[in-house]
Write a structure and sequence with these properties.
The chain is of the alpha/beta class. It contains 47 helices and 33 strands. Helices cover 47% and strands 12% of the residues.
């Protein structure tokens, strides 16, 4: 104002005041946006939008209840044939007993009473009595023509019961139209002699399900559920029928889908894993997705967890009442079953739960009561983001970082003469062997093409795919159904239970044709390849390719609703080196178009048929393969994701001869106008491979180590046994057979790994290398076994053999579920076995539950997980989480080609509290296992790894440019879930404060953690001599560390003898409750917690988004105190301790110019203060609060936080706001009671001081808030200021200081101008309030 700006300032303040008034109203009245509705953003297109929206909303708010078994209840009526027939069907020509669906017509009162009984027991949904309500199933009774009527009247009966109970209770109840699996299957032959035979067609199933659905919809159902799916193909036919009905005849209703796992293998009857099943049916965007029948709850749990990890739908689960007994009955009582499902609910696995076979209304009531206290599963906001999901019997996830995907090309009648002849002759058995070989050679997707003029393409495609379905080794991979005839494509899609790729469609027939085909493909649930064709023809130049692909993308995404990740563009790999100049840039055009497409069309993939490139050199396979390898090397770098290749036949880029490599590079990049002529000249000399044999023998003259490496890298197994024996025989260089593995063989595999990582080797080639390695190791195993036997004999002769201690340890190794690669694991097993470990190798595709069960049964010491493909990483995370959930204490080792130290540190280690260690290769496994088997070394190694992994995590998150944050509302919605109803807090022995004056220092010495002491002196030992006292053995710093330690002991003795330092402290406890993110502290221990609190501690909540698929809560300190609304008694505490006198001692040493002693005194005072905090916390747990009275821990265990409860300090990661100290000091009058002061910057004086809060809940853990969002800062500042103004009546200037401190420290926002402006706005607004 002194400079003439008073008016401007006044206007600014008025503007700020109005803005704040508006802001505050918005903040206080803002509603949370709805959570995900399984991909459905609006219910307006549904038949009853209000009902659909209400169901979805309720599924988010609480666990809903489904009814129990209909058949179980009907059996209780003991109906005979006459009872089923009734009057209407007393003369029916066929027996009808067992046709439960018929009872809706003949015994409607029974069916109505069953429905009503379940609803009155607490069910939100009842299923219609239509499990066998298709004409296919009713054909057994000759009642096909009654199908529509049965379904309609069954729906009306259920609706009548639901409306009655809704009216009686005021709680809405809903009817689910049940569509059962039928008694036929599309994926399994009814005849052992003819595996390609089927007793039902896709079209028959679609028609049958459509007829059933019409009856159910006309009868008034609220939901349709495709249930008890033992063959995914059947369910896809049902979902296809519903999609057609909703498009052509009826408005939509929500869809539920429930599969059936037939045994503990986790597969459906038709062989699919639960994860693959989810991928296969997700195109229907079901509101609920889950499992029922076949298993009891305990057996079903791992598969329900797998469903939940892989779907954005709500998860449903309705198991049987245990497994069937010898008489076919079910033994689980309502109480037992409810207890099992309570654990599901407690762990956040469920949205909808009920019962299947063997369950009754009593079961449903018990289940409803048991799950009521728990929140439903939170639907993940993003899942497999950026990934294309495909499936055969097993799932396949193709993400941004997935290596090149090989689509096997040999099952193509147009591309393989041999395969064509097999199909033409009807020799499908031999044709299957081609498909099997393609998969064995590394094809991750199998291309099937039956386009041949002399073939009935539709029949051939259907026959071949039906046969593939009977071969698990082939059908485990996704299929690419390839045809220029769309009718043939549809014939293939009707035979595939997995999610396929359709190859292909294009715009060449115009947009209408393109959209019609695209909608059909989407209805089948397939991904699609789009060729770069349009109405003008095939695109050859970059601009035209990109234009067509962009136009196609927009049509698919905007008009058809295709997931961008399900779109694959083929920008046309065209033939080069034809002698026509205009063809010379075709390879360049593909690569450049790929680069642009990947940059401008998010989510899509790029593929291509590789054989077209080299068509000019037909018959010259060596040249063609070299051209393909060079082209792929560059195209993959540009963004090509997959390609149709002859898996296993590509040479290594680095192995192509320099002359041929240069020719290929010149052709592909059009560098030399004479490149075609030069390649033709080269082909005339080398095309038949005459020199190939000569070159292949030259390496035989190299040293044996180089020969072994060459064999491994090239995948040549011809000489590997011979060379392995030569190396083994060289006892001077390789005294033990194991040394051959650890030496040249591991060196060769290391080269393979480097080439694979650099993109110069492809998966089929790696697999060939692995087979060579396996052969070499298999040759050495008998020699190693002989060596072990000789060692045993020698020890027995010497009397040193101990039968009980014959193994150094027991290790369970497994390639995780979803992965079939085991060579690396096998080598680790051999190496460990040779070092006297008992190795239990569970093989490949090992489910989590088997790994854990085996480890327990075998009393294992260590578990090792291996995997080669990217999905293995997710399964390893799951195994780690399960090990934590069941309370295992074993170390977990991680290894395999796709694993890394970073992934282990960031994604796996945080899921499991025990040591999780990434082991680089087999040579390191023995060292790690030996350390883990030694109790002292185990602790040291675990600490070393934990510190290293913490640094890796910090670096990883700091390197993320686009770290995502949840809104504060969403973060609060995902807070720690605690069963407060089951929690009974221990009352502290006193409330208020207790002061400890002149605390006995001798009590503290044994609690000192000496590691930070050595850190002060920058004395850091290296593993295994890191911590105290092992640091004294360290070669580098051990001697100096011992010297400093001895001098510290001498000074410590002097301090205690002469009482140079004094310890004082305070402990306090108060009744408390949480209110949102804050903790309110009260004087009186009355319930409910009401009135003005003594103090409020303001919490900060994590907002940085967790890793995808990680269900960890977003923590705040308030989560571990009972919320006010829970009506549960709870408490919190605080402490402040200090060591006085260090400053006086330092002044004395300063006068003597003794800097060394000054540092020593400060370091010791600091250690004593920390020891005081540690010792006092132990007394709190055992005496003063007494919630762990039986605790007896060593000091080392205390330092490793192996106790219950936490003592977080303001200014540290769990509560980074130092200003909370002010509240502590005011609440407990700490300065007056102890003499510990707070400086202006909120540091404690004396410096050797420690303070913090106490929390006792067993789920309380230390955590890091990390960076937070501006929305939380706004709330935080607003409510802190509001409390200060209303409760303390302080000046605006105080608010300004308080807000600036809160904001700047908590949010790490450093823009002073912005902070000041916002605080100014806050201050004016608070005053107006």
């Amino acid at each position: 104002t002194s400079r003439g700006r008073g008016a401007t300032t006044f206007r600014l303040l008025n503007t700020a005041k109005r803005a704040f008034s508006l802001l505050s109203r918005k903040l206080l009245t803002r509603k949370m946006p709805p959570a995900s509705d399984s991909g459905m953003s609006s219910w307006s297109d549904y038949r009853d939008p209000e009902v659909a929206a209400r169901i979805a909303s309720t599924l988010r708010e609480r666990i809903m209840i489904l009814d129990g078994g209909m058949g179980t209840m009907i059996q209780g009526y003991h109906l005979e044939e006459e009872g089923y027939r009734g009057d209407e069907f007393k003369d029916w020509p066929k027996l009808v007993k067992g046709n439960n669906d018929l009872l809706s017509l003949t015994q409607p009162s029974i069916v109505y009473d069953i429905h009503k009984g379940y609803l009155e027991a607490g069910a939100d949904f009842v299923e219609t009595n239509t499990f066998s309500g298709t004409r296919i199933a009713q054909a057994d009774y000759g009642m096909e023509e009654l199908t529509y009527r049965m379904n309609k009247e069954s729906a009306e009966l259920a609706k009548k019961a639901a409306e009655k109970v809704t009216a009686d209770t005021g709680v809405p109840r809903y009817v689910v139209g049940a569509l059962g699996p039928t008694n036929r299957t599309l994926s399994i032959s009814p005849s052992v002699e003819d595996p390609g035979l089927r007793n039902v067609t896709w079209d028959e199933l679609v028609d049958a399900y459509a007829e059933q659905a019409r009856g159910l919809l006309d009868g008034g159902v609220d939901v349709l559920m495709v249930e008890t799916i033992f063959d995914t193909a059947n369910s896809k036919a049902a979902l296809f029928a519903l999609s057609q009905l909703f498009e052509q005849e009826y408005k939509a209703v929500p869809i539920f889908v429930s599969g059936t796992i037939v045994d503990r293998s986790g597969r459906t009857l038709s062989g699919q894993t639960s994860e693959a099943f989810v991928v296969s049916v997700s195109q229907a965007e079901p509101m609920c997705l889950g499992l029922n029948c076949a298993l009891g709850a305990t057996e079903m749990r791992p598969f329900i967890e797998a469903i939940g990890k892989n779907t954005n739908s709500y998860v449903l689960c309705y198991p049987n009442a245990g497994l069937p007994n010898a008489l076919g009955g079910y033994d689980e009582t309502p109480e037992i079953m409810a207890e099992h499902l309570k654990a599901f609910a407690k762990d956040g696995l469920l949205n909808l739960v009920g019962g299947c076979c063997g369950t009754t209304p009593a079961h449903i009531k018990a289940i409803a009561d048991s799950v009521r206290p728990f929140r439903p599963r939170k639907v993940p906001s993003s899942l497999h983001e950026g990934h294309m999901l495909l499936s055969g019997l097993e799932p396949m996830y193709i993400g941004p970082h997935t290596l090149f995907v090989n689509i096997g090309e040999r099952c193509n009648v147009a591309g393989s003469r041999a395969f064509n002849k097999m199909i033409q002759r009807g020799d499908y058995e031999k044709a299957l062997s081609v498909a099997k070989l393609q998969v064995e050679m590394g094809a991750q997707v199998l291309d099937i093409n039956m386009d041949e003029g002399m073939l009935d393409g539709k029949a051939a495609m259907a026959r071949f795919l039906n046969l593939i379905a009977t071969e698990p080794e082939i059908s485990k991979v996704p299929l690419c159904i390839d045809s220029s005839n769309f009718a043939v494509i549809e014939a293939g899609l009707k035979c595939a239970q997995g999610k396929c790729i359709v190859n292909s469609i294009s715009l060449k027939e115009g947009e209408e044709d393109f959209l019609r085909k695209a909608r059909t493909i989407k209805r089948y649930g397939a991904a699609v390849v789009v060729m770069a064709f349009d109405e003008t023809g095939q695109a050859t130049d970059v601009e035209h390719k990109v234009k067509i692909c962009t136009r196609s993308y927009r049509l698919l995404v905007d008009k058809v609703g295709f997931n961008p990740c399900d779109i694959i563009f083929d920008p046309n790999i065209l033939t080069i080196a034809t002698g026509m100049e205009e063809h010379n840039e075709y390879a360049i055009n593909f690569i450049e178009a790929t680069r642009i497409i990947k940059k401008t069309l998010p989510g899509c993939r790029v593929s291509g048929g590789l054989s077209n490139l080299s068509f000019s050199f037909r018959g010259m396979e060596r040249i063609r393969e070299a051209m393909h390898s060079v082209f792929l090397y560059h195209a993959i770098k540009a963004g090509m994701d997959m390609g149709i290749v002859n898996a296993g036949n590509l040479p290594l880029y680095d192995d192509i001869s320099k002359e041929l490599l240069q020719l290929c590079e010149d052709l592909i990049w059009n560098k030399d106008p004479d490149a075609t002529e030069k390649m033709l000249a080269y082909a005339q000399v080398h095309g038949k491979g005459a020199k190939k044999e000569q070159e292949s023998e030259e390496w035989r003259s190299m040293p044996v180590e180089d020969r072994l490496e060459h064999s491994l890298v090239k995948g040549i197994d011809k000489y590997v046994v011979e060379d392995t024996e030569e190396a083994r025989s060289d006892r001077e260089r390789y005294p033990r057979p194991l040394n051959v593995i650890e030496g040249p063989l591991m060196k060769g595999m290391s080269v393979v790994g480097d080439l694979f990582g650099a993109g110069k080797m492809f998966l089929p080639q790696v697999i060939k290398s692995a087979r060579v390695m396996k052969k070499a190791v298999a040759y050495l195993i008998p020699y190693m076994e002989e060596e072990k036997a000789q060692m045993k004999e020698q020890m027995m002769a010497e009397g040193t053999w101990d039968e009980n201690a014959k193994y150094a340890g027991t290790i369970v190794l497994a390639t995780v579920k979803g992965d079939v690669h085991d060579i690396g694991k096998n080598i680790v097993g051999v190496v460990l076995g040779c070092n006297n470990y008992k190795v239990i190798d569970l093989g490949v595709m090992t489910p989590c539950e088997r790994i854990l069960k085996t480890a327990v049964e075998e009393n294992a010491d260590i578990i090792g997980l291996s995997g080669l493909i990217t999905p293995s990483l997710d399964e390893m995370i799951f195994v780690a989480k399960e090990m934590e959930r069941v309370g295992m204490k074993l170390p977990l080792l991680i290894g395999g080609a796709t694993t890394s130290k970073t992934h282990t540190a960031v994604k796996i280690a945080p899921r499991y509290k025990q040591p999780v260690i990434h082991v680089l290769d087999a040579s390191k496994s023995v060292v790690v296992c030996s350390a883990l088997m030694d109790a002292d070394q185990k602790e040291e190694l675990a600490e070393e790894v934990a510190e290293e992994y913490e640094e890796i995590r910090d670096e990883h998150y700091d390197s993320l440019k686009d770290r995502k944050y949840l809104s504060i509302e969403k973060a609060r919605a995902k807070k720690l879930e605690v069963d407060w109803a089951a929690y009974e807090a221990v009352r502290p022995s006193f409330t208020g404060t207790t002061v400890f004056d002149d605390y006995d220092l001798s009590r503290l010495v044994e609690y000192i953690d000496w590691k930070p002491f050595f850190d002060v002196w920058q004395l850091r030992g290296r593993y295994p001599n890191r911590g105290y006292p092992k640091i004294f053995k360290d070669k580098t710093v051990g001697e100096e560390a011992l010297k400093v330690f001895n001098e510290a002991q001498a000074m410590l003795k002097k301090i205690m003898d002469e009482k140079l330092l004094t310890a004082r402290g305070l402990v306090g406890f108060w009744p408390a409750c949480s209110v949102g993110d804050d903790i309110h502290v009260f004087r009186e221990d009355s319930m409910p917690r009401e009135g003005i609190p003594l103090a409020k501690f303001y919490g900060l909540r994590q907002q940085a988004e967790k890793e995808p698929g990680v269900p960890d809560p977003y923590l705040c300190l308030s989560d571990c105190v009972a919320p006010k609304e829970a009506g549960v008694r709870d408490y919190c505490g605080l402490f402040a301790v200090s060591v006085f006198g260090a400053e006086a001692m330092c002044e004395k040493f300063k006068a003597e110019f003794d800097d060394y002693s000054i540092i020593m005194v400060k370091a010791l005072a600091d250690r004593l203060a920390e020891a005081f905090a540690e010792e006092l916390h132990e007394r709190v747990r055992r005496e003063f609060w007494g919630y762990s009275p039986e605790e007896h821990l060593e000091a080392s265990d205390l330092h490793r936080i192996r106790y219950e409860g936490i003592r977080p300090a303001p200014g540290y990661p769990s509560q980074p706001d130092h200003t909370e100290k002010r509240t502590m000091w005011e609440l407990a009058d700490i300065e007056s009671a102890t003499g510990i002061k707070l400086t202006e910057s909120l540091a404690m004086d004396p410096a050797a001081s420690v303070s913090g809060l106490y929390f006792a809940h067993p789920q309380a853990v230390y955590f890091a808030v990390g960076k937070i969002g501006k929305d939380q800062v706004s709330w935080f500042c607003f409510f802190v200021c509001l409390f200060v103004v209303r409760g303390c009546q302080v000046s605006t200037s105080h608010i300004h200081r308080q807000c600036t401190s809160q904001w700047a420290r908590s949010a790490r926002i450093r823009s002073a101008g912005f902070v000041s402006l916002f605080v100014c706005l806050l201050c004016v607004g608070v005053r107006s309030l």
